Amino acid sequence: MVTSAAPEIPDAPDPENTWAPTHYQRAILAVCERRAVSTAKAVFTNTGIKLVEGGVRLNQDMYWRLARHDLRAPLEELLTIEDLVSTSSLVELAREQCQHEPLLHLLAQDGRNAIPTSALVAPLQAMSLPRPLAFMLSVMREQFPEQYTHAMHVALVAIYLGARANWSKGECTSLAAAGLLHDIGTLHIDPVWLDSTRKLTGPEREQLAKHPIIAAQLVNACEVYPRSVAVAILEHHERMDGSGYPRGTRATQISPLGQVLLLAEVVAAFFEKYANDGAAVRLSLTLRLGHHKFPADLAQLLLPILPANNIQTGNANDLQQVQHISAQIERALAHWSQLQPEPQAPPDAQGDSGQASVFITQRIQALQRSLFDAGCHPEQQGELIPLLQDDTQGLKEMLFLVREAMWQLQSIANTVTTRWPRIASSSDASDIAVCQWRDALVAPDGD
Question: Is pLDDT of 114 > 60?
Fold first, then answer.
């Protein structure tokens, strides 16, 4: 990398010292300590004053001084980094993951219609990657390596689904771009969400829900991909039943690319979270229990290759855990039944009043139907548990199912917090009931 001598950069006019770096700028500042971050072109102020030439390596102090100025173009768009992410480096990473990652190995072993590694990486080779987006991916790789690996997982699963669905090369290339870039919005929010040991507050969860919007805007601004790519990125946390975010879009309102991307994101997340704890089995059970959440035609491409019957050996605590979690589910369902206003008021056409209550009722009704279909509704447990006491594999599958059901209940509560952040200050009776149910659900043991 060609660099020039470090220049003297004047302080920005900020007499009150009010400037503070964004979360993305903080990440870049951290990367400057470990990697050679340089200007890709000259940096000018809005008044035309050149602050620094292109090809100058920045330390933290220089970056800080430049970022405080009112610049002609955002500083982050004018930077490059040592070993910048490129299509060739993405292809190399993809080939490595296809060889060693259990998820991708599972997809490659699909004997019905195997997709060779060359077909999975071809869309990555064909994909355009503008330098500002390559720089963002490079910052993610350096600062949040697990997120970078996740982005590649999602891209490869999306390509696999597109190839299995006989999508064109161009469509699979769009899937590759959407998968790789779907989470770049997280660079611009507080990374506190990455701490799995910490429960997010309402405002933090609301901020996290904005990352698909931020990512879609960043991708759209580059003007190099079809509009469908940014739309799919916006939709990657939506669900077919309308329970997702950020817009609560449902069914055919979600674009075809968005449907692939939302499923690919779930698949990748399961194999990352449960890598050593029956990821394929858990995913199979989740797709079946939550079938109303995912595009059925795409889920059917996955279910036959997921070893749903290959349940790991159970242990002595499984029965107690099934009973404990089932009791939590039963309490949550009964609590909502008690709190729900009678008769339930229709949603306020001019505001949010009542909408959260309707949302919870609809989601709980759908979940209860799925629980009955799977044979694990709390009302069915009295007859079922005695039959499973000596069936360790059956108990393990039941444990997976009730855990997934409990996760879905918690997801309903989290969605309420995200979609209606001001509900806690509402005086509407149905909104008060929603807050009471949500707060009870997220308390320890649902108490």
Answer: yes
